[in-house]
Design brief:
The complex is a heterodimer of chains A (504) and B (144). Chain A is mainly α and 504 residues long. In chain A, 73% of the residues lie in helices and 1% in strands. In chain A, α6 runs parallel beside α14 (317-323) and α6 runs antiparallel to α17 (354-375). Chain B has helices at residues 2-22, 36-54, 66-88, 90-104, 109-130.
Amino acid sequence: METLASLAQGFAVALQPFNLWLALIGCLVGTLVGALPGLGPVNGVALLIPLVFTMGLTPGSAMILLASVYYGTMYGGRISSIMLNIPGDEPAMMTTLDGYPMAQQGRAAAALGISAVASFVGATVATIGLTLFAPVLVGFAIHFGPTEYFALFVLAFATIGGISGVNPVKALLGACLGLALGTVGLDPASGVARYTFGLFELYDGVDFIVALVGLFALSEFLLFLESSHSAEAERVPLGSLKGALKELPSTFATMGRSSVLGFIAGVLPGAGASLGSFLAYVMEKRWLGDRGRFGEGDARGVAAPEAGNNAAAGGALVPMLTLGIPGSGTTAVLLGLLLSLNITPGPLLFQQQPDLVWGLIAALYLGNIMLLVLNLPMVGIFTRILAMPYWLLMPLVVMVAFVGVYSVNNNAFDLYMMIGFGIAGYLLRKLSIPLVPIVLGLLLGSQMEFNLRRALSISGGDWSILAHSGIALGIYALTALLLAVGVAVGIVRARRLERIGPLD
Amino acid sequence: MSDRITGLLLAAFALWYGFTAGQYTAGFTDPLGPSAFPQLVSIPMGILALYLVLRPDAEPAWPRGAALLRQLAAIAVLVVYAMVLRQLGFIVVTLLAVLLLARLLGGSWGQSALAGVGLSVGLYLLFEFVLGLSLPEGRLFGGR
């Protein structure tokens, strides 16, 4: 009951005309960013963060805008998966498997329509889940002390790369690099300058926004320059939306199952939307068995991954908002925005800033409806934008990145730093060292250190305090379990993708 | 081979990082002080880096020839952009940068010029008037 009252209060915030506009703009931009191959959710949100910062939006409005972009990218990714057989972003990879065959059979409109509805169902289930579970988790986490938080940070870093299919050693190395970057600057507890090389620009630490835009957006550009993208992808006809109505009822059960599965995958640390869509597709395929024709253009084969990835995207917001520990790359970036605005997510946030939290959750409900409405009739426009040539798209991305980063502090030092991070990000991606753990380390390193030092202050320097709490021990056990599961899933997934064959 | 080199570099970095941390001292502070956490990070970093030296992944395909030149040229364009942005102002620098970047991405001269003019003016109008960010107008021309 209390939750309903809070939610009503949230709707009062989200329904303010300015916030409604922001949500609408966010949904549009998000769908576009998601649809364009080469611009994923992390890139989209990362590019917008410096702009949000300099525009001076209130934290609540800024979160509504960026969370709408985040939800929007999950809708958008499916468009190029279906029309071009190129996933618009990583979570939409599984959607190509049945989406493109459907398009080749002249059922592109049906695939787009059904996947839009599936996205809506997935995101709505996840938002309801967020509404119900977040307060419960908050009630539990309110008793956490520094020992428990330190354990949570260990959990986050040990598992962030866990199920993404990359070499776990490289994911952990990335986390260490990020933590090392996070120690640059004045130590808040003692005022000692660490790793600043005498540069005053570094006294405040490595600017998260600069690092983020460089690592993601600029490295993407450098990666793009490697190959000449002159070949135009084959266009398939859209077909009629009427076919979608006929096939839609047969996919409802699939959407329900996949949404629940995706939500759970999203809540788990280190999983995120890609795992949500992957699990949903694979489990649905197994569930249906002979009754499904997965891989040959089965409508349920688009419904499952789309419901799964949208549900996971919403689920990933649960640990981010309640514990301050993001469950995926994009939520890590959203967390960075909050921290940059001097807001610390966690159980106290729900008590101190209920307008922000519940306004955001209410905005997600509204944004979801907007996205469904936008994505059904306007899908023709979005598919046409896919034809935007790279010689226009990529300079646009680079220039938005430069203006955004420059306008935060109005100095050229940030631009040089960003170029440096861009080159580093490119090299790391070539070496398959994932970038998300680095960003997460940079973001959360200072808090991890703070909690560790507070715990040892309480114990007077006795390290055994870290093992005194039952909850902390439970979290360490969960860490070990998730690491083991991560390695196992990574192996299964690699085999599975091999069988499907190369994506392009 | 790339992984082995990366592993060696990161191991060296971890060593330097950990040792440098040892020099940070503060008079009155908590039991751990400013040096413990970086040292704590440097240990797993060093071990993981050495593991990478011993068990490297397959070699990635590094760019060579024209692709590498394109990338270096693009980086040069971006560095020069950062150097002259204040002096020449947003519109001029962005026009030239987009023109060159679009050429590098395979646009024709005509397409690239169009992209340069369109993006520089379009983004200027968007940022200056819609979003209310003030962009450098070029000191050479008497602007901010």
